[in-house]
Amino acid sequence: MSAVAEKKELKAHIWDRHPDDWYVEEIWCSRRLFQEEAFDGGIWDPSCGLGRVLYSADAAGYPTTGSDIVCRSGFCDALFDFLMCERPRARNIVANPPFKIAEKFARHALAIADGKVVFLLPLTWLTGKKRSHFLQASPLRRVHILSPRPSMPPGPVFEAGEKPGGGTKDFAWFVWERGYEGAPEIHFMRKEG
Ligand SMILES: C[S@@+](CC[C@H](N)C(=O)[O-])C[C@H]1O[C@@H](n2cnc3c(N)ncnc32)[C@H](O)[C@@H]1O
């Protein structure tokens, strides 16, 4: 098979839905988060994948730990299903969670975290009937709306050395703080600050 045909076949294949929902956000998303949001204590990413969140947290000076169901990088210190984990491994939980089970992740993180819970989620969570009710009843403190739309290709696309294209879906960092009862703030988080 020619190199072009091989790349085409690879591309057609890898853009299928990833079985574990492994999609890699652009690094600026977490770099900007740790510039704008302050944390007391360490950062645990329970679905760390390649470790982009932890890379940025470490660069911002926070102690970090990572886990996942599959070891995809040196940032992964342990392998387990987050939903089965009862004891937090750091004060704050920050992640780009697997989309299919993102609400379960959010509910579970809120049940076990001592500090902040911060998840990268589609902006449509604000408007969806079920999700908006969940958010309204939760200690949602802030929503950092990302601009421009980040690209989030499946992990194998990165491994194949492809450059991410322009994103088509709106995302935001949703920040929860235990005990918060006020109205959430909306904040625009731009790539260039
Ligand atoms: C959206 S990706 C995270 C991308 C990550 N920020 C990166 O830099 O690659 C979601 C990750 O969740 C993991 N995952 C899926 N189900 C999980 C579960 N039940 N517990 C822990 N991790 C899970 C996947 O293996 C995948 O690596």
Looking at this protein, list some descriptive labels.
193 residues, alpha/beta, Rossmann fold, 8-stranded mixed sheet, 6 helices, binds S-adenosylmethionine
CATH homologous superfamily label = Vaccinia Virus protein VP39
Query: In terms of structural class, how would the helical and strand content be classed?
Result: alpha/beta
Strand percent estimate: 15-25%
Widest sheet: strand order? 3-2-1-4-5-7-6-8
DSSP E strands, number: 8
In total, how many domains does the architecture comprise? Answer: 1
For the record, the CATH class is Alpha Beta
Bound molecules: S-adenosylmethionine
Distance between the termini: 45 Å
| Helix residue percentage | 25-40%
CATH fold-type name: Rossmann fold
Give an overview of the whole structure.
By secondary structure, the protein is α/β, with parallel strands linked by helices. It has a single domain, classed as Vaccinia Virus protein VP39 (Rossmann fold). Helix content is 28%, strand content 22%. The protein has helices at 3-14, 27-36, 52-59, 102-112, 129-136, 155-159, and strands at residues 43-45, 64-68, 78-79, 92-95, 116-122, 140-147, 171-177, 185-190. Strands 3-2-1-4-5-7-6-8 form an 8-stranded mixed β-sheet, with helices on both faces. Helix 3 links the parallel strand 1 (43-45) and strand 2. S-adenosylmethionine binds at residues 20-25, 46-53, 68-70, 72, 81-83, 96, 98, 155.
Topology:
Layout: H1 3-14, H2 27-36, E1 43-45, H3 52-59, E2 64-68, E3 78-79, E4 92-95, H4 102-112, E5 116-122, H5 129-136, E6 140-147, H6 155-159, E7 171-177, E8 185-190
Parallel strand pairs: 1-2, 1-4, 2-3, 4-5, 6-8
Antiparallel strand pairs: 5-7, 6-7
Helix pairs in contact: 2-3
